[in-house]
Amino acid sequence: MNRKFFTFLWPVIWALAFSLSSGAVLAADEAPDVFVKRIANETLDAVRSDKSIKGGDINKIMQLVDSKLMQHVNFRRMTALATGPGWRRATPEQQERLQEEFKLLLIRTYSGALSQISDQTIEMKPLRGASDEKNLVVQTEVKGRGEPIQLDYRLEKTPGEGAGWKIFDLNVMGIWLVENYRSQFSKEINAGGVDGLIKSLSDRNKSNAKKA
Per-residue pLDDT tens for 173-190? Predict the structure, then answer.
């Protein structure tokens, strides 16, 4: 994974994540672009003011992700798409481990990027397609120092309890998160099966923990 690529990506992802729950009631009825714009603008301010998050406090970040982010992200779908065909061959226990290790990998690897949030603003692009489509992409630009950064959100509309928009993929500067990880995960599965991928993720998480 290109480290420079995620230097731009993760400050905005985490900023979005930490106040998604504040719009839970509205999210079911909001247009997807309104949903993203409102939350992004609210949360950039929230993260800027939280010294613990900006300092890379892993425990606090994980608590916030579990309590606020996960209910608004279809992380199971994200992990399944990143795993590819191996997901269907995995047992329920293996699928749970994959989700746990993948989430921890993302948090531990890129939490340090939070300290880079400063004067970024979000500019929305015109929404393509009807806002009630089940799957669509909300396109934005992150503006701050340097050139604007393309940041797009792939959303799905979910019915029933917890209805509303859920994120299951992100695109930064033309690179989709799921697609990028899928190529890595595929190599791991081909070499050692699903258990091999789980071990690889676990080892990377342990290594990141030691570095932290």
Answer: 888 989 999 999 999 999
CB of 111 within 8 A of CB of 65? no
Which position has the token pair 């806002």? Answer: 131
Single-letter amino acid code for the residue at 45: D
Residue 132 C-beta-side C-alpha neighbours within 13 Å: 2
The per-residue pLDDT for range 26-69, each reduced to its tens digit, is 555 788 888 788 767 766 776 677 788 777 777 776 766 666 66
Q: Do residues 70 and 45 touch, judged by C-beta distance below 8 A?
A: no
For 3-211, CATH gives 3.10.450.710
DSSP, collapsed to helix, strand or coil, labels residue 98 as helix
pLDDT confidence band for 21 (50 / 70 / 90): very low
Domain chopping of the chain, boundaries: 3-211
- Give the rounded distance of the alpha carbon of 121 from its chain centre: 18
* pTM for this entry: 0.77
Give the alpha-carbon dihedral of 134, 41, 72, 153, to 10 degrees.
40
Ranges assigned E (strand) in the chain? 121-124, 135-143, 149-158, 164-172, 175-176
